[in-house]
Design brief:
Blueprint (H helix, E strand, L loop, with lengths): L9 E5 L12 H13 L3 E5 L11 E7 L4 E7 L4 E4 L6 H17 L3 E2 L7 H9 L2 H4 L6 E2 L3 H10 L3 E6 L9 E5 L5 E6 L5 E6 L2 H12 L4 E4 L12 E9 L5 E10 L14 E4 H9 L1 H26 L4 E8 L5 E7 L7 H4 L1 H20 L9 E3 L1
Parallel strand pairs: 1-2, 1-5, 5-6, 14-18
Antiparallel strand pairs: 2-3, 3-4, 7-12, 8-9, 8-12, 9-10, 10-11, 13-14, 13-16, 14-15, 16-17
Helix pairs in contact: 1-10, 5-6, 7-8
Length: about 375
């Protein structure tokens, strides 16, 4: 069966099929999207582009019946609007997935609900050109081998933070620091997000091992900022910004994420926990200081979103990560164009509901409104 739905009112959710029931990740979030889509008058289904059959011009799509609570599949045409929530697990899988998406784009052009960001190095370079934003950015350079890291350690007081330019969810990051007596400590997370903590008696050996671990990947070097809580746990603040049903940017919620003491990331995929950002800041710095910090964060969000849309085109949502050091200094850490939803549940019920409702509200706005310009103004900042 092909295109039985009204073409102008369909939203496809891009997923990676895998063994299991249902056969894709983020099923609670997808279930909510389908439910809200039905209430909004949109036909919403999840699909893997690798299920494309050219002569039928269909993909296998998944829908869910709210009454019997079961996922069912059928053959559907390519929707006009696509929300990418795919998570290929390997490099080979990502390559096959991208190839399948290109075949769909060639067969029938469609729009993405959200744009895509390039690697972290390019994003940093764009934001660093803005005088208002550059003060929020930690110094950053591309890793160029053991000699470049040795020089970076000298310039940054004996410690450095390294992260992959194309990484996500805190995977494959490392913190390198000189210790008393000449030893070097290297902490970080592996590809599967397991933490590691190693000590080397010789700096040359530490840098050689790190270089081998980095391999041919592009990495960024930054100072090892003191973004820890009173118990030594790493902390950061994730702000989810989304466009609403009027096409205007709004802050959905801000969550303070805390990792396990001794680890180097606060990412929830690595075992971290989340609380409302302003509550944590108030407990550490007092209510007045917390309010001022949140205003500075909101102002930073406004500047970052505008700059990113100026350079990289249309976006619907972004996860913006900030850190606050022991002195109260604010740092912008990175932007994510495929943000998760788990942290919003810790902020408030309203934030969790908005995080799921706004993709549908904005999709409806895109599909049903007359053509017009992208709106950059914020409603709630």
């Amino acid at each position: 069966m092909r295109d039985f739905y009204p073409v102008s009112e369909a939203l496809g959710i891009l997923v990676c099929e895998r063994p299991g029931e249902p056969p894709f990740g983020e099923s609670p979030f997808l279930r909510e999207l389908l439910h809200r889509g039905k209430k909004a008058g949109l036909f919403v289904f999840a699909f893997d582009p690798r299920t494309w059959i050219p002569h039928e011009k269909t993909v296998r799509g998944w829908t869910r019946d709210d009454k019997d609570r079961e996922w069912t599949s059928g053959r559907y045409g390519i929707p006009p609007l696509v929300y990418d929530r795919s998570w290929p697990e390997t490099g080979e899988g990502r390559a096959r997935f991208r190839q399948a998406v290109r075949k769909l784009e060639d067969a029938r052009p469609f729009r993405y609900l959200n744009g895509k960001l390039p690697d972290k190095g390019r994003v940093y370079a764009v934001l660093n050109k803005d005088p208002e934003l550059s003060r929020l950015l930690p110094p950053t350079e591309i890793y160029g081998g053991p000699a470049s890291l040795a020089d970076w350690l000298k310039r940054c007081g004996g410690s450095a933070f390294l992260k992959p330019a194309c990484g996500s969810q805190g995977r494959r990051v490392a913190a390198c620091s000189r210790q008393a007596g000449g030893t070097v400590r290297v902490r970080g997370r592996l590809q599967d997000n397991r933490p590691f903590d190693l000590a080397f008696a010789d700096e040359k050996e530490a840098l050689r091992r790190l270089h081998r671990w980095i391999g041919g990947r592009t990495y960024l070097m930054q100072p090892l900022l003191d973004l820890t809580g009173t118990g030594g746990e790493p902390c950061d603040i994730r702000v989810l910004v989304q466009k609403n049903g009027r096409g205007r940017w709004a802050v959905t919620g801000a969550a303070a994420r805390s990792g396990n003491p001794g680890t180097v990331t606060a990412n929830l995929h690595g075992g971290g926990t989340a609380t409302p950002a302003e509550d944590l800041l108030a407990a550490r710095h007092g209510p007045a200081a917390a309010s001022a910090m949140m205003k500075e964060i909101r102002d930073g969000c406004r500047l970052i979103v505008r700059r990113l849309e100026q350079h990289y085109g249309h976006f619907f949502e972004l996860g913006l990560d900030f850190g606050i050091d022991r002195t109260g200094g604010l740092w912008f850490l990175e932007a994510n164009s495929k943000p998760g939803r788990h942290a919003m549940a810790s902020v408030s019920r309203a934030a969790a509901e908005d995080a799921a409702a706004r993709p549908i509200a904005y999709a409806r706005y895109i599909l049903l409104r007359p053509p017009g310009r992208v709106i950059h103004e914020f409603d709630h900042l």
